[in-house]
Amino acid sequence: MEAATQKRELNKTELSLLLYLETRAVDHGGLVETSHMNEEDDEIAKRWNEEGFIKFGRVYSKHVKKTAYGAASRWVQFTEEAWEEAHKERKARADRMWEKRSWLKSDEK
């Protein structure tokens, strides 16, 4: 059962981790390469799992996938709340990146 939706304030580190985990959930079938996570990220992911914000755990050892950077030894699954937060941050990041762009559209020349 998912935790009750609450107003969650995520700091910069948590937002970065959320977007990394979202990418792993979408593009890698939920497999997470912990070589891209530091100790703080791991603690946050474990806390979120305990809170019911995400589901996060270890992959059965016979199914760990070796990668160029190490191994995908963890898995992640998002709750509706996590999907909503990730979507909001993805959109906010896209807006920030658009404002910082260093190129012009053809109708802006």
How does this model look, in words?
Helices cover 45% and strands 18% of the residues. The chain is globular. With 109 residues, the chain is an alpha+beta fold. The longest helix has 20 residues, at 80-99. Mean pLDDT is 92; it is low at 1-5. It has helices spanning 12-27, 39-51, 80-99, and strands spanning 31-33, 54-58, 65-67, 70-78. The protein has one domain (12-100): Arc Repressor Mutant, subunit A (Orthogonal Bundle), CATH 1.10.10. A hairpin with a 2-residue loop joins β3 (65-67) and β4. The relative contact order is 0.19. It contains three helices and four strands. Strands 1, 2, 3 and 4 form a four-stranded antiparallel beta sheet that branches.
Structure characteristics:
109 residues; alpha+beta; Arc Repressor Mutant, subunit A; four-stranded antiparallel beta sheet; globular
